[in-house]
Design goal:
By secondary structure, the chain is an alpha/beta fold. It is built from twelve helices and eleven strands. Strand 1 and strand 2 form a beta hairpin.
Amino acid sequence: MKNDAFIITELRGGIAWVTINRPDKLNALSAAVVTELREKVTELEANDEVRVIVLRGAGKAFSVGYDIAEGIAKGVSSAEDWHNALTRNVDLSMAVWACTKPTIAAVDGWCLAGACELAMACDMIVASDRSQFGEPEIRFGSGPVTLLMPFFIGQKKANELLLTGDVVSAEAAEAMGLINHVVPATELEETVDKLAKKIAMTPAVTLRLTKLALTRAYEAMGLRQAVTANLDVVSILNSAYSPEKAEFGERVKSHGLREALNWRDSRYGSL
């Protein structure tokens, strides 16, 4: 096992278990985490000993997505600033998407916003029954960064989730086709391990070319073009002023991120 600053990697018989290791921040995707994880994906893809890559988070979350507090602290505000910051996240998700090795997201707990996009970029998602999925960015004046959801669950359901910011249970995510399997938390690692081992039995060249065929099929439907076009739009969206966004930012600075998130969600009540 190799323990980096934010990424822990363990290779078990051809299966690379990659853990986002920032549990005190619910594995929020800071610039450093994104950079390290992007480098790790490249490294594992080039490693002939690796047949399957499993991505997971330490503690009680897969990840809550983009590190909002870091962005506010750094004063990211202009469309250009946002484009530069969000490009890192898109590059990570699309590197996972295009990885020539099969990838599995093992989700236990929160899987939100950019982290939900990162999980969707994996070939499969297996989740514990206590997991939650969603892209609530619209609730504080942002939007989806790596626009993958419409390609995986269809236009109408994607519209509902992205326009409301609703967060759904693992069971609901499975029913709409967002994830593959839901299992008890105590069985998550064993279930993912069995799935990864089954995939790893197939010859590497067969896996690589089958993945290429699947990736090209989705990209022929416009997936990559949609992601690229959306990056420009969401950069402008994130730089635009709204009273709600300004209030959210002030609450983060004065009371902390948790209180700001509670305020954000309380505005929607039980709707």
